[in-house]
Amino acid sequence: MLKKVIYPGTFDPITNGHLDIIRRAARIFDQVVVAVALSSEKRPMFDIQTRVKMAELATQEIPNVKIKSFDTLLVNFCQKERSKVIIRGLRAVSDFEYELQIGYANQSLDPEIETLYLMPNLKNAFISSSVVRAILKYKGNVSHLVPPSIIPLLESA
Fold this sequence. Notes:
Structural class: alpha/beta
Strand content: 15-25%
CATH architecture: 3-Layer(aba) Sandwich
CATH topology: Rossmann fold
Order of helices and strands: EHEHEHEHEHH
């Protein structure tokens, strides 16, 4: 049985922290689906096509990773993908409380769904998309926070 995991997020933009989680998940699972959420309620800086393209560029060297977008409940996306496992990243205790609530909500919608939490490498623990967006807003250097392959897309924003 193929073990497929879903790694959902807005990825606005994808960061080295996300990539750290993706690489580690790719070593554990046969296939990792990076599920880029439309998340219009979050008013992303980048449109869905750009966020998907960034994720594809960032993960092109990892053969068992697929990038897909979605605009449904996560559990419905998991069911469509025939996966019962969700990966989420935890940077700090504050992330845990939010992620725990979301994990319980997902399991209430589909009792077979399991959520696994991975912590990024310590050097990536402080990185978030919101930090990257804030730096980008003021034309700051984010090259140490994001995969090099997405820099051209960030510069054109």
